């Protein structure tokens, strides 16, 4: 193993971040970004402070060439690189694409593993070295900054790698990339490989890693490569890329940032841009981020279990190793569910404006909350409001007696509703944009109350064809925010029940003043 990073001179500890979201990331099956989308991502990467943007593979298509050219023309700050195989046409295309860049780079590569050379390239090792040398020389005739990669390096013979890298450096390569093309290596192996190659090349040459995630080790391997001497790491936003993807940029950056005490490395990344970039790439690529993904997943800063929530309420650091704000996210989220405890429940009620509930009331509501959580999984703000406000003593001024709806394609939905009121049964008819809207109109006609519907959510609370649907709504009436729920196998009936409940609460003078809590919308 090499010496610990902390003991190296300070300028030796700067890791360059080479983002390949627009090249290897775009190689994710099903992803195709247009020019405008690529440009938007490139601007976001530049804002974030990446050192290199690999903007595409210009020979791949006229569109890719133009996409890289636009980024080269319009994005300032990072080096703009174009990928090229070790041949004339690819290198000319890459050179043309990056020529307008403030800092252009040509990245040329050829495979060096026995299997790739024999089966894919069908070239003898000597011929591969010769092709590499010619490619680097040609690239250098266009630009001063040339990166050379030995594809499938981690399945190549180390002696051959050293030979081809020395030849590439001699021919003018300034960065040498050692890719784990098929995600095969391990942290120990790659650390040792980088150390050996570092010792064999001149100090001015930057070593680079490019790890794939086939065994889920891309980030660990990239970090180990840095320990072995890599000072450039190739990675992508959200870890997207060919097959299982590449090393995830946000995870590497935050590992170095959070464990600077251990690694001693730093990057030039403005970490507050990470989450925004992740959302952008997810939206434009159409690749959702898994909820439990480190740093940028929905649950990365969410706490559901009571013991954790209690700890986080007392001191965030009990269960958080970094602040959500540091990566551009909102403060930690307490998700209310069946594992939540009283501390989180009290805080959630407090944040919703129910500050002065007596202790015995909170205890009672907590029991009901656990029952509900057992049935539903996640509990939202309006579920909690409904829980607090669904006291058995809500006077039933109005009750739903029956309804009939006429609705269909190219017809205006009409609802006939009958409510029992203090004056006896009253009927009304109304039309609306949909069957629920029509029913709500009819109920409002009968009660004479017209609150404004703010949110409407429906979910199945049981499984199967005859599943019970639960409708949860919030409505504003003057300053008051009211929540109602209704359960039925018929979703219009569930919706009507929720609306009638809101009417009864208005008549009883119930509801809360809305307050903005520190928790994210939809979650407590
Ligand atoms: C590990 C990586 O991620 S490498 C980057 C992978 N990315 C891509 O392939 C995306 C873009 N690719 C493409 O659009 C196309 O594959 C192109 C335009 C590059 C080439 O298309 P085609 O000319 O139709 O060739 P095709 O893709 O079928 O085969 C690849 C050819 O390149 C050769 N080749 C592969 N790598 C290299 C290299 N580094 N240097 C020189 N030649 C190479 C192969 O041996 C094969 O040659 P052959 O046709 O003589 O057998
Ligand atoms: C072109 C190289 C760097 C590559 O993408 C790989 O080997 O995975």
Automatic annotation (TrEMBL):
SUPFAM superfamilies: 2-isopropylmalate synthase LeuA, allosteric (dimerisation) domain, Aldolase
EC number, as in UniProt: 2.3.3.13
Top-rank taxon, per record: Bacteria
Pfam families linked: HCS_D2 (PF22617), HMGL-like (PF00682), LeuA_dimer (PF08502)
Binding site for Mn(2+): 24, 210, 212, 246
The family this protein is said to belong to: Belongs to the alpha-IPM synthase/homocitrate synthase family. LeuA type 1 subfamily.
Protein name: 2-isopropylmalate synthase
Annotated organism of origin: Deinococcus xinjiangensis
GN (gene name): leuA
